[in-house]
C-alpha cells in the first residue's frame, strides 16, 4: 500500500522558488527525517503536507488520497502537527491542551471517551504530575512533550514534527527521540520530522530526505544519503564518517 | 497517577468551575436586588418583598410600596438594572471573543472601530437630522447601529482581502476608528452650541432613559449570539493560543470561526452601543478578570466574562447615580473609576502569587 507521496510539489513565495519539483514517498510506519541547510524548504514542505500552505503545483497523497481536498477536520484526523515553536500563549492546563487535540472528533463539548483517551495519553507521555498545571508554567522540554501528546490525541496516521528537539538539552533530545521511536513502533504512526542533527538521523530514521535549495538532493537510507560528499554539497562543511562501537557517526572536520 | 484519577481530577475541576459560575450568578442577583433598593426613593428590600411576595407580610412588618413607588421600581430602577446587566454581559462577551479571534489581549469590542462609527451615526442625526423630538432617539439609535455595521463590514471586508488575518483585522479596525473619529470631530466642529453638548454627552455612555423596549432589542441580539460564540469556545482556545496555522492543524476552520464570531461580536456590541453610547473598558477588562479568576479556557471565560461585565456595569451605574445624587454620573465614566482599582488589585494579587 502506498504511504505518504509527494508528487511534483512546487511552491513559490514572492517569485522565490521555495520548493522545486519535490518527489518522494514515505512508507507507512516509517520514520522519515528531513535534513537540509537553513532556508532549504524543510518547514515549508512540512506545512504543505497538511495543507497549512497550499502549493502552487503538485499533490500530497496519503494512501492514494489527495489530502488537500479533504475537509479541515478530516485532514486533522490524518496529520498531527507539532510546530517549531513551543511558545503557546494560552492559559489552558496541560490536560485541556492535550484534550484540544480531540477537536476533530468532537462537536462543541468533549465526551467521556475523549477525556479518558486524553488521560491515557497523558499517562503514556509521563505527564501525570503536570496534568493540571498551566501550560505556560512549563519548561520548553515539558511543553514539547505536551504538544506531542496533543498531536497524539488527534489519533493521527502521520505525525509531522518541525524541529522538535531544537529547544531541548542533550538528555531530553535523546529521550524525545526514544519516545518517537516508541510511538512509531507501538502505534505504527508514520513520522516525518525536520532535524538538524545528522547523527540522530543516522540513529533513528528509516529514511532520510536531504533538501538543498528547495530540491531533493538525495533520499534513501540515512547511511547511504549522508555521505561525506553529499554533506559537503548541501551544508558546505567537510565531515568525516567514523564508526565507534559499530555505530556510524558524522564528525565535522572543522574546529579548533 | 492512574488514568482514572486523571479523569476524576478533570471532572472535579470542571465541577469547581461550574460552581464559580453559579456563585457569580448568585452575586449578580444579589447586586441586582441591592441596586433596585438604592436611590432617592426609599424602596427597601423588605418593602419590595412585602409588596410582591405572597405571605411575606406575615413575617416582615413593612409598608408596601405606593403606586408611585411601584412605578419608580418598574419603570426606572428595574429597566436600569436590566440594561446594565445586558449591556455589561454583551460587552464582556464581545471583548472576550474579540481578544480570542485576534489573539490579542489588548483587543476589545471596539477594536474594529464600532464605537467611533456609532458615535458618528448619532452625531449625524444630531447635526443634520430634523426629526420630531419623539422620533429623535429612535433615529439616533438606528443611525448609530447602521454606521457600526457599515464600519464592521468595511473592516472585515478589507481584512478579507488579506485572508482575514488577525493582524489585518486589528489594523484595519484601528485605521477606520481614526477615520470615523475624524469625521465625528468634524461634526463637533460644525455643530452649533446646542448640538455640541448632545454629541459629546452621547459618547459618555449612559443608561438614563433606557426603556424596556430598548433592553429587549439588546437582549435579543445577546440571547441569539451568546450561544453561537459559546459553541465556538474550543476553536477560540486554539486560535488564541496557537495562531491560525496551529488551530487549522487541529481541525479549526479559522476564517469561518472568525467570521461567525465576528458577526456575533458586531451585532451584540452595535446593539448595546446604539442604545447606551460608548461604555468602554468593560470589554477590555472583563475577559482579563475572568481569566484571572477561572483560568484560560474559553468554555469558562466566555460565560464568566458575561457575568463579570454585567456586575461591573451594574455596580458602576449604581455608584454613578447615587454617589453625587441627585446628579447622575454616566456609567461610561464610572465604569473606569470602579473597574480600574479592581483590575489593578487582581493583577497585583496574581503576580505576587506567581512569585
Q: Would you give an account of this structure?
A:
The complex is a heterodimer of chains A (256) and B (355). In chain A, strand 7 (158-162), helix 6 and strand 8 form a beta-alpha-beta unit. Helix content of chain A is 33%, strand content 29%. In chain A, the strands form three sheets. Chain A has a six-stranded mixed beta sheet, with helices on both faces. In chain A, strands 2-1-4-5 form a four-stranded antiparallel beta sheet, covered by helices on one side. Chain A has helices at residues 42-49, 72-78, 94-99, 112-124, 140-153, 170-187, 198-204, 222-225, 228-235, and strands at 4-13, 16-26, 31-36, 57-62, 65-66, 79-82, 158-162, 190-194, 207-212, 215-220, 239-244, 247-252. With 256 residues, chain A is of the alpha/beta class. Chain A contains nine helices and twelve strands. Chain A starts with a strand and ends with a strand. Chain B is mostly helical. Chain B has one domain (77-354): ABC transporter involved in vitamin B12 uptake, BtuC (Orthogonal Bundle), CATH 1.10.3470.10. The longest helix of chain B is centred in the first third of the chain and has 36 residues, at 67-102. The chains are: A alpha/beta (256), B mainly alpha (355). At the A-B interface, helix 2, strand 6, helix 3 and helix 4 of A face helix 1 and helix 10 of B.
Q: Which helices and strands occur, and which strands form pairs?
A:
The complex is a heterodimer of chains A (256) and B (355).
Chain A: E1 4-13, E2 16-26, E3 31-36, H1 42-49, E4 57-62, E5 65-66, H2 72-78, E6 79-82, H3 94-99, H4 112-124, H5 140-153, E7 158-162, H6 170-187, E8 190-194, H7 198-204, E9 207-212, E10 215-220, H8 222-225, H9 228-235, E11 239-244, E12 247-252
Parallel strand pairs in A: 3-8, 3-9, 6-7, 7-8
Antiparallel strand pairs in A: 1-2, 1-4, 4-5, 9-10, 11-12
Helix pairs in contact in A: 4-5
Chain B: H1 3-37, H2 45-52, H3 56-59, H4 67-102, H5 114-128, H6 133-160, H7 166-190, H8 195-204, H9 212-231, H10 233-249, H11 254-276, H12 282-294, H13 298-322, H14 331-354
Helix pairs in contact in B: 1-4, 1-13, 4-9, 4-10, 4-11, 4-12, 4-13, 5-6, 5-7, 5-8, 5-11, 6-7, 6-11, 9-11, 12-13, 12-14, 13-14
Amino acid at each position: 500500500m502506498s504511504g505518504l507521496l509527494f508528487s511534483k510539489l512546487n511552491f513559490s513565495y514572492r517569485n522565490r522558488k521555495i520548493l522545486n519539483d519535490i518527489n518522494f514517498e514515505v512508507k507507512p510506519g516509517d520514520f522519515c527525517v528531513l535534513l537540509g541547510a537553513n532556508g532549504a524548504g524543510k518547514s515549508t514542505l512540512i506545512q504543505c503536507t497538511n495543507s497549512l500552505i497550499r502549493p502552487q503545483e503538485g499533490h500530497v497523497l496519503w494512501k492514494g488520497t489527495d489530502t488537500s481536498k479533504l475537509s479541515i477536520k478530516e485532514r486533522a484526523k490524518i496529520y498531527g502537527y507539532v510546530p517549531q515553536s513551543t511558545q503557546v500563549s494560552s492559559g489552558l492546563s496541560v490536560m485541556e491542551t492535550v484534550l484540544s487535540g480531540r477537536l476533530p472528533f468532537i462537536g462543541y463539548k468533549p465526551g467521556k471517551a475523549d477525556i479518558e483517551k486524553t488521560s491515557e495519553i497523558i499517562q503514556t507521555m509521563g505527564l501525570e504530575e503536570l496534568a493540571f498545571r498551566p501550560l505556560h508554567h512549563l519548561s520548553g522540554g515539558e511543553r514539547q512533550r505536551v504538544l506531542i501528546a496533543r498531536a497524539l490525541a488527534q489519533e493521527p496516521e502521520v505525525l509531522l514534527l518541525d524541529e522538535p528537539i531544537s529547544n531541548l538539552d542533550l538528555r531530553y533530545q535523546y529521550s524525545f527521540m526514544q519516545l518517537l521511536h516508541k510511538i512509531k513502533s507501538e502505534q505504527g504512526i508514520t513520522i516525518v520530522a525536520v532535524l538538524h542533527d545528522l547523527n540522530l538521523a543516522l540513529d533513528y530514521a528509516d529514511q532520510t530526505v536531504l533538501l538543498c535549495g528547495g530540491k531533493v538532493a538525495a533520499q534513501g537510507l540515512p547511511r547511504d544519503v549522508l555521505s561525506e560528499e553529499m554533506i559537503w554539497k548541501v551544508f558546505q562543511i567537510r565531515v568525516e564518517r567514523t564508526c565507534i562501537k559499530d555505530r556510524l557517526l558524522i564528525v565535522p572536520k572543522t574546529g579548533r | 497517577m492512574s488514568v482514572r484519577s486523571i479523569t476524576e481530577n478533570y471532572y472535579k475541576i470542571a465541577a469547581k468551575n461550574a460552581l464559580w459560575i453559579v456563585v457569580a450568578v448568585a452575586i449578580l442577583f444579589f447586586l441586582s436586588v441591592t441596586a433596585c433598593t438604592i436611590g432617592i426613593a426609599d424602596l427597601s428590600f423588605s418593602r419590595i418583598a412585602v409588596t410582591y411576595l405572597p405571605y411575606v407580610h406575615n413575617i416582615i412588618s413593612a409598608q408596601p410600596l405606593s403606586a408611585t413607588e411601584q412605578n419608580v421600581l418598574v419603570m426606572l430602577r428595574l429597566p436600569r438594572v436590566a440594561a446594565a446587566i445586558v449591556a455589561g454581559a454583551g460587552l464582556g462577551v464581545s471583548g472576550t471573543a474579540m481578544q480570542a479571534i485576534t489573539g490579542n489581549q489588548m483587543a476589545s469590542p471596539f477594536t474594529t472601530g464600532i464605537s467611533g462609527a456609532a458615535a458618528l451615526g448619532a452625531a449625524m442625526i444630531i447635526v443634520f437630522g430634523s426629526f420630531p423630538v419623539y422620533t429623535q432617539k429612535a433615529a439616533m439609535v438606528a443611525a448609530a447601529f447602521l454606521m457600526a455595521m457599515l464600519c464592521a463590514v468595511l473592516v472585515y471586508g478589507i481584512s478579507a482581502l488579506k485572508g482575514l488575518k488577525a493582524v489585518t483585522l486589528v489594523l484595519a479596525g484601528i485605521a477606520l476608528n481614526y477615520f470615523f473619529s475624524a469625521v465625528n470631530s468634524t461634526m463637533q466642529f460644525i455643530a452649533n452650541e446646542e448640538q455640541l453638548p448632545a454629541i459629546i454627552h452621547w459618547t459618555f455612555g449612559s443608561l438614563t432613559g433606557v426603556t424596556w423596549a430598548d433592553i429587549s432589542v439588546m437582549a435579543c441580539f445577546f440571547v441569539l449570539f451568546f450561544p453561537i460564540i459559546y459553541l465556538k469556545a474550543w476553536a477560540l482556545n486554539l486560535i488564541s493560543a496557537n495562531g491560525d496555522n496551529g488551530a487549522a492543524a487541529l481541525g479549526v476552520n479559522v476564517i469561518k470561526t472568525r467570521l461567525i464570531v465576528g458577526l456575533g461580536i458586531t451585532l451584540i456590541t452595535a446593539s448595546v452601543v446604539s442604545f447606551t453610547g460608548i461604555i468602554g473598558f468593560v470589554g477590555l477588562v472583563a475577559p482579563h478578570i475572568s481569566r484571572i479568576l477561572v483560568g484560560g479556557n474559553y468554555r469558562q471565560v466566555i460565560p464568566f466574562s458575561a457575568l463579570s461585565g454585567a456586575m461591573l456595569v451594574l455596580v458602576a451605574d449604581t455608584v454613578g447615580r447615587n454617589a453625587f445624587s441627585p446628579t447622575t454620573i454616566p456609567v461610561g465614566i464610572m465604569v473606569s473609576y470602579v473597574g480600574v482599582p479592581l483590575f489593578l488589585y487582581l493583577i497585583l494579587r496574581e503576580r505576587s502569587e506567581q512569585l
